[in-house]
Amino acid sequence: MSAGAAVRTTVGPLPGLLWLPEGASAESPAPALVVLQEIFGLTAYIRGRCADLAALGYAVVAPQVYARLDPPVEALEDDTEDLLPTAMGLLGALDWGGAVADVVGVRDALAELPEVDGSAVGLLGFCFGGGLAFDVAAAASRAGTPPAALVSYYGSALPNLLDRADDVRCPSLHVFGTEDAYLPMPVVEQIREAVTAGGTREDVRVELHEGGGHAFDNPNPMFHHARASRDAWAQTVDFLGSVLPVR
């Protein structure tokens, strides 16, 4: 990861954080990912996952999705009082359609960086961000510029977005926990049916993780499931290596 990886930058219309992998340059551009936050914002956890991806060789941008709120919010950390109610309030105040348009713009701006291979930019989102990434992939595909890949961790908005499934025209990985109270297994099976077009799409993977609840990758003890987190991340690295390979 480059020395300037954690420097705040402005990407497109939103402030965000940019990570560039070691060796990325105009002569040797890197594949890239837009990483979309949970409802808690650009927390230390999300920043850590971005650094993990940069260490694998990806250029990464994490936009500050809550920057449009008044006042803007970067992150709610684990010691925030009333963490979940506060985060749900931020989500309720967000203009979803505006957020989709913003992230499409961020993706386009990332593709234009000289250190980035503009033909190899994907999306990766967690929880709220997993659903947002799905909707961004659909919007970009309808516009004729589908992302190179989509990874969605237990996308919380997916049940309300399944009418967009045919529009998501890129290789995709969806991961869920079998003990997710927010997305119970019957709902996950509905999601699987839609995103795989009844099992006919070979470029879409749906992976289930035994014992994992909602947000199982988040290290906060109220969410974390160590085995599910480890195995899902290994699947993520494998998937990205196959559809968005690093040179």
TrEMBL record:
Q: Gene3D superfamilies recorded for this chain? A: alpha/beta hydrolase
Dienelactone hydrolase domain mapped to chain residues = 23-243
InterPro entries named in the record? AB_hydrolase_fold (IPR029058), Dienelactn_hydro (IPR002925), Dienelactone_hydrolase-like (IPR051049)
What molecular function terms (GO) are annotated for this protein?
A: hydrolase activity
Query: Any coiled-coil ranges, and where?
Result: none
Please give one Pfam family short name: DLH
Under the heading PANTHER family, the entry gives: ALPHA_BETA-HYDROLASES SUPERFAMILY PROTEIN, CARBOXYMETHYLENEBUTENOLIDASE-RELATED
**Protein's recorded name:** Carboxymethylenebutenolidase
Lineage runs:
Bacteria, Bacillati, Actinomycetota, Actinomycetes, Micrococcales
